[in-house]
Amino acid sequence: MHWMRWTSLDMDKRIRALKPEGEHGDSRPGQLVWDLPVRVFHWSLLALVGAMSATGFWAPEWWLSVHVWGGYALGLLIAFRLVWGFVGGRHSRFASFPLTPGALFTHVRTLVARGRQSHAGHNPGGAWMILILLGLLSAIVVTGVVSYGGRENLGPLAFMIGFEAGDVAGILHGILAWVLLGAVALHILGVVVETRLSKFSLVGAMITGRKPVSENQADPGGSLILRGLIVAGVTAILVLAGGQGMALLPGTGWRGLEFPEPYRTECGDCHDAHHPSLRTAADWRTMMAGLADHFGEDASLEEEAVGEIRRFLEVNAATTFDTEAANRIGRAATLTGRMTGTDYWKARHKAIDSLLFRTKAVGSRVNCAACHADAATGRFNDHAITLPKGE
Fold it and tell me: What is the pLDDT confidence band of residue 16, given thresholds at 50, 70 and 90?
């Protein structure tokens, strides 16, 4: 029986010798490679990208504020990672990334041959993918902020970005988001392939920070928690202070207006006293000249009131504002002169049940204030939309 016991022990040693250190399930969990700050960054980034994808692709437009705050958080994470790439742990620093073309070629050739490779930190493919993802995410954040400033006249760049630039940035923002999803899918595929070839869980390593490498390949700096907190705090203070200071500057495309009394009382008696940026000066002149037949109703007023209202509307017409509403609705020509007849208005309200406009809370398609809390200001920001409940 002794020979059986020694044979069994010998076989166990041979099996254990074939496994890299850290895969034995015993007291040897491997060496610390990924510091805690970079691991927190990784999983926080994953959660944020998921949330941003959900709010950007599938959530209704009035979830814009959630999407924007998520974008700000994403920007802070990226800023932290860029700084951490120079002051972080051994394998978190960009200097440790094997980014030479030769290293990448060798890595790909080995993968095609289904060979195993050993890398303490990022392998060449992973290193390039990290840079690609950081670049894409940075571009998405920048285009998002530019779009927010131009389309919504809000955010840190509203003081310098016009609607046209914001609109182009918004289109690019959407394209980059799709490219990012493709890059993420490729990244996940790489993790799966690398895990199968190395017989070691890369996901687990990014949770525990440990990999089966030799001691001299480990990160001698440890978890670097204090350094990470300092870098995160300083980065957040600088970015938030700068962004908040810029956001307080007056926007270029919008200004506040004081509605004259006749316009508020006479026009507002039958419907919303619509913001003058929703029609051109020519449209307002035509409308004010035909009050006797105002969309099928007699809305005639005293000549003095007509003159005062017309002057206010013409001076503050669509061409004097650079908001999304002024550009897409106010400057769009329609056969009837109705803002609800513009292609943009129809497209944005297409998904809304037509019965909503007949409810007591709304009443008609021109009762903008029923759903747009900022309708009177002419801003019509997406996050100010609230559909009446219980209807």
Answer: very low
